Amino acid sequence: MALIVIPARMASTRFPGKPLCDLLGKPMIQWVVEACRKADVADQILVATPDQEIVDACRTFGAQAVLTRSDHPSGTDRIAEVAANHPADFYINVQGDEPLINPDTIVACAAPLDSDTTVQMASVFTICPPEEYDNPAVVKVVTDLHGDALYFSRYAIPYPRNHRATAVKKHVGIYAYRREAVMSFSHWPVSPLEQTESLEQLRFLENGVRIRMAAGFGSAMAVDTPEQAEEVRKLLAAKLNSRVE
Predict the structure, then answer these.
(1) 49, 78, 132, 163: which has the fewest C-beta neighbours closer than 10 Å?
(2) Residue ranges of the domains in the chain?
(3) pTM of the full predicted structure?
(4) Is the bond preceding 112 in cis, omega lying within 30 degrees of 0?
């Protein structure tokens, strides 16, 4: 049994209330839920939130939501709370601020755990365009010959001391975890590399959890600010208009 969990909260520093911001007549969280439904890889989809407003909004469009604690330091900790109360074979973490996420990316993330019981955790990468190499907001990942992550960084790894023998891989922030892995995460202290890079996935690597990386598709834009929400409205409108034509 697979369970998609969408962490969402109203108390965003840069964009308070963003899960419920209107995008062409729907709250943003609804677009994320609908993308998860199209992926059709999970037996259940749950929105995990500390806010009753989000729970109430989810009910209006037929989505399931559960109230979680308000003091979680990360979305992964929020998913661990859900995992403690909702047993499943594995969990897929889809961010609540990704209304443009490609359903095929969700499928790609779930596939390693669905096909191989020894895989404890999975995530997704795409090829990083050169103009994003030096952008610290774009996380890069290097993998071993089996496709497992060796390291994640905001730096353009691998450093091209010689001609690049492999493409720079851009990490897409979607994860799938076995129950044991995500439950363990919440009991581990913040790790040194995690603290240095401000990347919580490094806590898994530093504690010996391998992360299988699958090729997927990047999202056109996540929403962190009201300005990005406006850009997403334009992208959604263009997409809908192209279908009509």
Answers:
(1) 163
(2) 1-98, 102-218
(3) 0.93
(4) no
